[in-house]
Amino acid sequence: MRASAVLLAIVTAMIAAPTAAETTTYRVLFAGDDTGHLIVNEAGNNIAIDFDFKQNGRGPTIAEEMTLDDRGYPIAWTITGTQTFGSSVDEYFRVEDGVARWQDTTGTGEAAIAGDTLFYIDQNGSVYSRALLARALLADADGRVEVFPSGEATIRKRDTKTYDGPDGELEVTAYEILGLSYNPGLVMLDQDGQFFATASPRFSMVREGYEAADEALRKYAESLSTERFVEIQSQVAHNYDVPVRIRNVRVFDPERLALSELSDVVVFGKRVASVQAAGSPAPEGEVSIDGAGGTLVPGMYEMHGHIGQGNALLNVAAGVTSVRDTGNENAVLRDLMNRINDGTIAGPRITRSCFIEGKSEFSAATGETVATLEEALAMVRWCGSRDFHQVKLYNSMRPEWAETLAAEAHRLGMRVAGHVPAFSTANAMIEAGFDEITHANQLMLGWVLEDGEDTRTLFRFIAMKRFPAMDPNDEAVQYTIGRMLERNVAHDPTIAIHEHGLTAVNGEVAPLAKKVIDHLPTNEQRSLKSELFGTEGPEERAEYVAAFEFIKEVLARLHTEGVLLLPGTDLGGGIAYHRELELFQEIGLTPAEVLRRASYDMAVYLGQDEDLGSIEKDKYADFFLVPGDPTRSLDELRRIRMVVSDGVVYFPSEIYPWFGIRPFDEAPKVVATAD
């Protein structure tokens, strides 16, 4: 793609001519709530940036100092501060004597400047650098720039829209930057080539004075995402109006925890038409897919999702055909579900949670925020008359409201789950009527907190360092387990995100990614070589690692005692979900039990087992194919060759390249027989 002559002239003039010192402020908005700022001070080719926002008690605090060359490329750049979860940032990039040198959380690197098209992609800076990259791409003859540390960025122009504010109407053009991450990076530049905004369906960062554009920007970002996924769907979704016979496969039976004899599974429309002996006579006019002796496994459930268009298809590719969304904006999620249900885009079946948060300075922007018990009850009743499976209460909810809200939710046929409200304990929420406790730390912090300690902040992560001082046999632990068993309370531990937060070390591949990292695009690889929770040094990291071992010991005890543990990541599912299931094996389940837990058990838990959870005649056609035996090794889950979701056939080898992911296995052979 080439930049227009007019825009190229604007960009070139803007870079070449030093400007007077100028300060521009941008507001960070989550679901319409102002949560922070981006302040950019420019003096000629020197830029200073102050970036700070907090949502749900966490967020980055970043300072940047940057010098650009006459093309607008960074040649000196420092980034300091803290990441979202508090880990420190000490990143730099500099060009000296024809050599580029950099440091980020993965370590240091250097490379000779070959030609004049290399642009450094920061790891922990603000989104403002995306505007600089966009201008560099627009000034490039073919809109394609090699980047440090590796890879190539390209740009695609989208629409031009007008937004009104204190500086009058601005003509703003949207661009997508491709090639660096799973999904495009959106950046919007005004008619002078200056950064105006970026947005997603839940978030926007917009020039101060133009905050009224927030909702329109978010809707526009969602529409662009939809267009992309509609295009992908047109290329990767295989809809057949004839029976589809998956030949020569073994079917995992979750109730028997065993594989069948070799079989043929026939799908017609959205449902399984029959399961037959392998080699059964096949009528003409079918589509035949050769399973080559592999295994069909029922579609799996991600039980702690925050689903969006960006990860919907990646979940399907990973064999996750159902997601319980545990917190989202109601209207955004409903629109997404409609697009999935009508086949516009691909995505898993979604079970919704009614996310209710109390009002405080730490309130999460997602969901509905209530200030009084009456408002909270009204929200429970609103959800009770719609398609919500459960109510999820959150950190800033008043603990004394929990019993009343739980009783009302139960009266309306909904379950109750959630975080433990600040200044309370899991024990108190179990007594109040919670059916499920969300996150391992939320369950266990009550054993180590002192009165008055506030879990609405990063402290709910930091306090886990106290866990190793306890023993899984302590009376406090046993009491909680006993009450969970008596009240039939389940637990959604999100083991993988705890492992990632507590054990990931800068410069080392995180356990989450060790088996997949070489398949991922550049920015995803960097993020998976970085710590999530910051530490002051090796001793503090050792405390966190010990805390994770304590968590696993307690979860193993919960499983042994009979508490139902639900597999969910809080990491978007997809490839991360496979690691979650491996961790379930580490706490005591066999591979076959893990597969049952991920499929049939969760269908039963959600009351969906009449249609889902196993591969049987008349059930929905939600399942996936792996080449080997996953009851022997869960590694097979990373080698999924085909997924059938709501009767539509997908091949991950066709899906993954759209996200910059190198496929893990090839698609099976497909043959259409003559009528």
Describe the structure.
The protein is α+β, with helices and mostly antiparallel strands and 675 residues long. It has three domains: 5-235, no CATH class; 240-299 and 613-675, Urease, subunit C, domain 1; 300-612, Metal-dependent hydrolases (TIM Barrel). The chain is built from 17 helices and 33 strands. The strands form four sheets. A 15-stranded mixed sheet has the order 8-7-6-5-4-3-2-1-15-14-13-12-11-10-9, with helices on both faces. Strands 16, 17, 18, 19, 20, 21, 30, 31, 32 and 33 form a ten-stranded mixed sheet that branches. Strands 22, 23, 24, 25, 26 and 27 form a six-stranded parallel sheet that branches. Helix 8 (426-432) runs parallel beside helix 11 and helix 12 (495-503) runs antiparallel to helix 14. The model is unreliable at 1-19 (pLDDT under 50).
Keyphrases for this structure?
single chain; about 675 residues; alpha+beta; Urease, subunit C, domain 1; TIM Barrel; 3 domains; 15-stranded mixed sheet; ten-stranded mixed sheet; 17 helices; about 30% helix; globular; disordered N terminus
